[in-house]
Specification:
Blueprint lengths: L10 E8 L24 H14 L5 E4 L1 H6 L1 H9 L3 E4 L12 H19 L5 E2 L12 H9 L3 E2 L20 E4 L2 E3 L4 E4 L2 E4 L3 H6 L2 H14 L5 E4 L16 H8 L2 H14 L1 E3 L1 H4 L1 H5 L8
Parallel strand pairs: 1-2, 1-10, 1-11, 2-3, 4-5, 5-7
Antiparallel strand pairs: 6-7, 8-9
Helix pairs in contact: 4-5
Length: 293
C-alpha cells in the first residue's frame, strides 16, 4: 500500500492503543501503579483475538504500544510485527504528557522507543500520547518527540472534552516541527464544531450506522482518510470490574463492551484499512497526498 492520487476508495488508518484495563487514565485514582504487576493482565488474550480478526479481513494496522507492556510480553510485540503490522509508541508507563515535566516526558518517550525498536527490529516512527494529552498547554512535547527521533505523532484530538482536546487545532495532518508531523484523530465538522468520529468510547456508545456515516462523510466530503482507534480491553467482557469508580467513569469504560467486537467486524468490512505509516506516507515524508486503493 502506498500514497496515490488515483481515483478509488480512501484507505483509512486502523490503530490499536495497546494497554490493559488497569492502566486506563480514568482508573488512576483507584489503581496504584505499584499494583500493576499484581493485577491480572489480559493483554495477550485480547491482542490475539484482534490479530485473528485482522488476519481474517486481510487488514494491517498500527499498534501504539506501551513500553511497560512490551517489556513484559516481548513475544507479543514480535508477533504483531511479524504479521506485518506497524509497531508505534504509546510511551512507557501511560502517564499523561500534561502531567509530566519536559525532562520526564522525554525520558518516557525515548525509553519506549528504544524498547520497541529493540524488540521489533525496525524504526518506530509514530507516537500517541496517553489520553491524547498533548494540547495548547504543553506544545513543548513536540520538541521532545522530535529530539527522540519520532517522525509523526497522533496525539491531538481537536474536540472539546473534559479530560483532553484542542478544538482549535487543524483537523488533518500538519507539520509541527521540521521532520515531525501531527496527524490528529478524526473529527467531523458539523454544526459549527468538531464532532468525535474516531472510535473509542464514542464508537461503543453511538449507533453503528452513525459512526459509519461520519467516517464516510470525512472520506467523501473532506477527501481525507480517517483514523480509527480502540483498545484491547474494549472487546473484553470478562475483564475484572474496578470498584469504587464514579458513575460517569463506569459508564464510559463499560458501555456496550459486549457489542464492540461485532461492530469492529462490520467496520472492517465497510471500509478499507491500513497502517498509519503507509496511509500517511507522504504526509510523514513532508508531502500532502493520501493513500487510496
Amino acid at each position: 500500500m502506498s500514497d496515490s492520487t488515483a481515483p478509488g476508495p480512501l484507505i483509512n488508518a486502523l490503530t490499536i492503543d495497546v494497554e490493559d484495563y488497569f492502566q486506563v487514565s480514568a482508573f488512576a485514582p483507584h489503581i496504584k501503579r505499584s499494583e500493576w504487576n499484581s493485577r491480572e493482565c489480559r493483554i495477550e488474550h485480547n491482542v490475539a483475538r484482534i490479530l485473528e480478526m485482522l488476519s481474517v479481513n486481510k487488514t494491517k494496522a498500527t499498534f501504539f504500544t506501551l513500553g511497560w507492556i512490551a517489556e513484559r510480553y516481548p513475544q507479543l510485540i514480535r508477533q504483531i510485527a511479524e504479521q506485518g503490522h506497524e509497531i508505534a509508541s504509546h510511551g512507557y508507563g501511560h502517564e499523561r504528557a500534561s502531567d509530566l515535566t519536559q525532562d520526564a516526558f522525554f525520558a518516557d518517550v525515548q525509553m519506549a522507543k528504544v524498547i520497541l525498536e529493540d524488540l521489533c527490529g525496525t524504526e518506530v516512527k509514530g507516537y500517541r500520547a496517553p489520553s491524547f494529552s498533548i494540547g495548547a498547554g504543553n506544545l513543548w512535547a513536540f520538541d521532545c518527540l522530535d529530539r527522540a527521533g519520532y517522525r509523526y505523532s497522533s496525539s491531538v484530538y481537536p474536540i472539546r472534552h473534559d479530560h483532553y482536546g484542542m478544538p482549535d487545532s487543524p483537523r488533518f495532518a500538519y507539520s509541527v516541527r521540521p521532520g515531525l508531523v501531527e496527524i490528529p484523530v478524526t473529527t467531523l465538522r458539523a454544526l459549527g464544531r468538531n464532532l468525535p468520529s474516531s472510535g473509542g468510547g464514542y464508537f461503543r456508545l453511538l449507533p453503528y450506522a452513525l459512526s459509519r456515516w461520519m467516517l464516510k462523510r470525512v472520506n467523501d466530503s473532506d477527501q481525507q482518510p480517517g483514523i480509527f482507534y480502540f483498545h484491547p480491553w474494549e472487546i473484553d467482557v470478562a475483564q475484572p470490574r474496578v470498584e469504587g469508580i464514579s458513575r460517569k467513569t463506569r459508564f464510559r469504560h463499560y458501555v456496550n463492551i459486549s457489542r464492540m467486537e461485532g461492530k469492529l467486524a462490520q467496520l472492517l468490512d465497510d471500509f478499507k484499512w491500513g497502517r498509519m505509516d503507509e496511509v500517511f506516507r507522504r504526509s510523514i515524508a513532508g508531502g500532502a497526498a493520501v493513500a487510496r486503493v
